[in-house]
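Worked example 3 (structure in, sequence out).
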């Protein structure tokens, strides 16, 4: 996909729209669309023919998406299967940018798209030009899709056996959909549980399946203010802090927010004496959970299905709480 230069097509007006397209078959359509939007005084990030020399290509895209409200994505046969299109779209959703895909050609293969992209409205500008204009002239109300995961360390060493075992447990690979499961990583400190969990979260298959976001919370042996940690998760999903005083009420509200969403919840450094009660019915619908703990004795009482992986002596197998 093309990249944008940090200039607005309307002098003195902050750019609101990032126009993205596949250069191989979408450039002419995008050029016409750009001129049409400019004529309607829609402030765009200025398209460019090639890369800006000496600068990272993906960084330029993220810089654009960090400041605009909308991404207009020209969908053509080359764009439909593109991994870069998925990457741009996911990043836009994580930034709260409204993504408006438009049909660059009439006959597109929608079966090649993951379900979260297929469910979007694709504008047919032959009939919906005014609708697109109207939608670009109101404020974007898209909530951010949370991604609470740190970057991988520079010295990250893949562990393909454990990694693929976790992928198989968390995903229905035939349908590219998440599985409601609790996966537990158990082992002494220093065996890389947190790192492999981060790598899992950065995997495109996981992000594609858990398309409503990835939440991460770290507890430790002395978790402290549990209500505050739960409210941090609530805030990432609703941008509200209800001010709960008890963990039961906070947990119940979090469960309500998680309902009907395909979300992966990662709980790092679970306390050694922790017992997750059946009262906390979080694992339902498309929610997956990934738990990491140093000690060996903990139970996951509310999971409909669970999977345990022990680090050190790496043991893989079904876990029945």
């Amino acid at each position: 996909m093309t990249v944008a230069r940090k200039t607005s097509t309307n002098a003195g007006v902050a750019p609101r729209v990032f126009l993205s397209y596949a250069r191989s078959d979408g450039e002419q359509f995008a050029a016409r669309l750009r001129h049409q939007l400019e004529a309607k005084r829609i402030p765009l990030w200025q398209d460019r023919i090639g890369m800006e020399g000496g600068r990272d290509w993906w960084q330029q895209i993220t810089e654009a998406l960090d400041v605009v409200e909308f991404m207009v994505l020209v969908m053509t046969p080359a764009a439909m299967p593109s991994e870069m299109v998925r990457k741009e779209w996911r990043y836009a959703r994580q930034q709260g940018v409204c993504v408006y895909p438009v049909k660059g050609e009439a006959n597109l293969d929608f079966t090649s798209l993951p379900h979260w992209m297929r469910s979007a409205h694709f504008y047919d500008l032959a009939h919906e030009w005014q609708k697109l204009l109207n939608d670009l002239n109101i404020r974007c109300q898209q909530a951010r899709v949370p991604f609470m995961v740190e970057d991988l360390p520079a010295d990250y060493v893949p562990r393909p056996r454990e990694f693929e075992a976790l992928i198989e447990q968390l995903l229905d690979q035939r349908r590219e959909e998440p599985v409601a499961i609790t996966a537990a990583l158990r082992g002494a400190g220093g065996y890389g549980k947190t790192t492999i969990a981060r790598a899992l979260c950065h995997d495109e298959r996981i992000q594609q399946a858990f398309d409503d976001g990835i939440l991460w919370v770290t507890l430790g042996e002395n978790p402290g203010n549990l209500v505050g940690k739960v409210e941090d998760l609530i805030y990432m999903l609703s941008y509200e802090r209800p001010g709960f005083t008890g963990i039961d009420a906070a947990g119940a509200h979090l469960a309500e927010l998680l309902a009907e969403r395909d979300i992966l919840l990662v709980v790092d450094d679970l306390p050694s004496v922790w017992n997750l009660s059946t009262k906390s019915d979080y694992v339902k619908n498309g929610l997956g959970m990934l738990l990491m703990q140093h000690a060996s004795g903990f139970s996951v009482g509310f999971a409909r299905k669970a999977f345990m992986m022990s680090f050190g002596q790496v043991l893989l197998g079904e876990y029945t709480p």
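Notes: The longest helix spans residues 23-39. The chain is about 35% helix and 20% strand.
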